[in-house]
Design goal:
about 220 residues, alpha/beta, TIM Barrel, 8 helices, globular, binds D-xylitol-5-phosphate, binds zinc ion
């Protein structure tokens, strides 16, 4: 079963609750939550208070993408405010093993993320310890960018590693995914697809329906 994880960075924050209810009613199970610190990436998004508020109103699985330097500082707090899975960037962590252990000690699922310029081999030492690998197909920091198609080679390479080692690890892809190119992302081996602007621009219900048909066929 392939999963759609709508990124609320693409939502209208004035109508956030309403739009989350709409994705949920359209059959979505995951919510992708982008946290940016203005240091690891140039932009600042939102943090714990927003996550805590939406946690009170939905049972969706919170797939939190931390674009923050030294993520180990905040693992306990993000776990406490409602994250189900914490993805952190290998480029941002001094000691990724320690971050993974911190996530586990909070009883949450752990994911590792790589930017477009990071070689795919970087994930190898951690592959057996994590629940998810997130491959970025844009430079992290902003929604609404165009996908860098060359990054799909990395998705293929991670899929190969997971298959070769016969692991139960999800492969998520994030950045510039829309209805028109989602098939290429799935063909490369993704099983969790993030989409911000292509879900929240226009009719959320119609967009989710179109994505879910591409992901899992007509219901
Ligand atoms: C970018 C974020 C993405 C972003 C995706 O730094 O990690 O999750 O919200 O947005 P779209 O789908 O518009 O590229
Ligand atoms: Zn993201």
């Amino acid at each position: 079963m392939n999963i759609l994880s709508p990124s609320i960075l693409g939502a209208d924050f004035y109508r956030l609750g309403e739009q989350i209810s709409e994705v949920e009613a359209s059959g979505v199970r995951y919510l992708h939550i982008d946290v940016m610190d203005g240091i690891f990436v140039p932009s600042i998004s939102f943090g714990m208070p927003v996550i805590r508020s939406i946690r009170n109103s939905t049972d969706l699985f919170f797939d939190v993408h931390l674009m923050i330097r030294d993520p180990e500082r905040y693992i306990a707090e993000f776990a406490e405010c409602g994250a189900d899975l914490l993805n952190f960037h290998l480029e941002a962590a001094r000691d990724p093993d320690r971050v993974i252990d911190a996530v586990r000690s909070q009883g949450k699922k752990a994911g590792i993320t790589i930017k477009p310029s990071t070689p795919v081999e970087a994930v190898l030492p951690y592959l057996r310890k994590v629940d998810m690998v997130l491959v970025m197909t844009v430079e992290p920091g902003f929604g609404g960018q165009k996908m860098i198609p060359e990054c799909l080679d990395k998705v293929r390479a991670v899929r190969r590693m997971i298959t070769e080692q016969d692991l139960d690890v999800r492969l998520e892809v994030d950045g510039g995914i829309r209805i028109e190119n989602v098939e290429s992302v799935l063909a490369a081996g993704a099983d969790v697809v993030v989409s911000g602007s292509a879900v929240f621009r226009g009719s959320v219900t119609a967009n989710v329906k179109a994505f879910l048909e591409k992901l899992n066929g007509k219901p």
